[in-house]
Design a protein that fits this description.
By secondary structure, the chain is α/β, with parallel strands linked by helices.
């Protein structure tokens, strides 16, 4: 039997009264791709932060290649060959590719940087990863998200990486970029590198991983070979219960039109968007990254300029500011919840109520008690895991942060919901809850536009689907008339 590359035994970590990890055991072997799965808040990120030296465990031991391993920080972990690439990439966009790859790893002689050998090292690492087209002297800001990931992986190669952790690596990638990343990961496996792959997409895990470990509530509840159990059983292990439906549907009937776009075009994107959205309908918008779907929603909401075309909300035609759209009953969920959707340092109560304070104001003063009461009700309705309504929203897991962003639209009492990637970075159990909530909103007469890069949820949740390709929207068709292959063909200009 192959000797373990890593052995973690009895790892525990608490933050105040909250136990993030409770006696976790994990064993990895050289040259394997090991999937770490679980709901948001299950402890995956905390366990990997302990592994990468970003956090110190309260109890437990670790061994790396048979030797004791207890890094005092990420730099010490990298010196031992352990590197972690987070979902939010840690690159300096204003620096060159070479500077990012070599950051902290520059070679020198007699007090001078050895630029020529360093550049050769960078070129060699990029070529080894199958991306010789990335120029060392080019700015990282000009790269795609996939290119920036390659830069981080190249940096890990220069440290003679033995164990690489990838946290949600495909969340911002196109399908082609994801496929190329899989080739890179398999190449690392062939070199004997151990890869820990964290993802909420079970189809990715089935395609790329050799073994898996499931975390739930800070504990390891199962491990095995990928394919040894069915997908339904893995989901059940993750959420602690049987998930009857991955895409629950609530009966709803479309009514009169509430939002109409006619030849809508922005400065660059979209180039031509036409659709009619009805009350009680869920309209899905598919397309590859960069097609113009987000720009379309932003133009409708008043965040981006409109070059031509009209937007009709209810019976009112005209362009508006976001405040004007809120007044018309339109709410928008940004795909970037950390930068645009939430104020991470403010409380759950403040984030829920920011777009609608009127009911809690009298003579210019806010009633904090009434605000907290409304927040508690919403938090309970959406099953948000939290400690207190006054805790910063940044302390919540990704799935619970997303629920807060959606809850704000509910508190706003929006009639038209523009949802941009509503389940991005959300675990399986929370996804099912969000799908159920979207269906319930449609049943209550809300109209929903749902932009998503995840085809199964578009086909499983929406009533009609339209596809955007290079800024132009196709005619919306009932979901029954689409297949995944047809959507991909339309999205890629076929």
């Amino acid at each position: 039997m192959t000797a373990p590359r890593l052995r973690m035994t009895g790892i525990s970590k608490s933050y105040g009264p909250t136990a993030a990890l409770r006696g976790v055991d994990l064993e990895l072997v050289p040259g394997e791709i090991h999937a770490l799965v679980g709901e948001n808040g299950a402890g995956k990120s905390t366990l990997m932060k302990v592994l990468s030296g970003a956090e110190k465990p309260d109890t437990g031991t670790m061994e790396l290649d048979g030797a004791s391993y207890r890094p005092i920080g990420p730099q010490a972990a990298r010196a031992r060959g352990v590197a972690m690439i987070y979902q939010e990439l840690a690159v300096c966009p204003d620096l060159s590719v070479e500077a990012n790859v070599l950051l902290g790893l520059e070679s020198s002689g007699f007090g001078f940087l050895r630029r020529s050998p360093d550049r050769d090292r960078v070129r060699s690492a990029l070529a080894e990863l199958g991306h010789p087209e990335i120029q060392p002297d080019g700015p990282v800001a000009a790269l795609t998200p996939a290119g920036r990931q390659i830069v981080e992986i190249a940096r890990a190669l220069l440290t003679d990486v033995k164990l690489l952790v990838l946290d949600e690596p495909t969340s911002a990638l196109t399908q082609d970029d994801a496929r190329r990343l899989f080739e890179v990961v398999r190449g690392l496996k062939g070199r004997g590198v151990t890869v820990v792959y964290i993802s909420h997409f079970l189809e990715e895990i089935e395609a790329i991983a050799d073994r898996f470990t499931v975390l739930r509530d800070g504990q390891a509840v199962g491990t095995g070979t990928v394919g040894s159990i069915g997908r339904g059983r893995m989901i059940e292990m993750m959420v602690g219960r049987a998930v009857q439906e991955q895409f629950p549907r609530t009966l709803h009937t479309p009514g009169e039109p509430v939002l109409e776009l006619t030849d809508l075009a922005g400065d660059k994107l979209p180039r031509g968007a036409n659709f009619t959205l009805r009350r009680g309908e869920i309209l899905g918008v598919a397309g590859i990254v960069g097609a113009g779907r987000t720009e379309m929603l932003r133009a409708v909401y008043g965040l981006d300029p409109v070059r031509r075309g009209t937007v009709k909300v209810h019976a009112v035609i005209g362009l508006e500011t976001p405040a004007g759209r809120i007044g018309q009953g339109v709410g928008m969920l940004s795909e970037d919840r950390k930068e645009e959707g939430l104020s991470l340092e403010q409380s759950l109560t403040d984030n829920l109520s920011l777009s609608r304070l009127g009911p809690y104001s009298r003579f210019g003063f806010l009633s904090r008690s009434r605000l907290r009461g409304a927040a508690k009700s919403l938090l309970q309705t959406l099953h948000v895991r939290h400690r207190d309504p006054d805790q910063p929203v940044g302390e919540l897991s990704g799935g619970n942060q997303q629920k807060i962003a959606i809850a704000r639209l509910l508190h706003q009492d929006a009639d038209v919901l523009l949802l941009d990637e509503p389940t991005k970075g959300v675990d399986i159990g929370s996804k099912a809850e969000i799908y159920r909530l979207i269906g319930q909103l449609a049943a209550a007469g809300k109209a929903v536009v749902m932009v998503s890069s995840y085809l199964p949820e578009l086909l499983g949740v929406c009533d009609r689907v339209t596809v955007m390709c290079r800024g132009v929207l196709t005619l919306a068709r009932p979901v029954e008339e689409w297949t995944p292959e047809q959507i991909i063909e339309a999205a890629t200009g076929g």
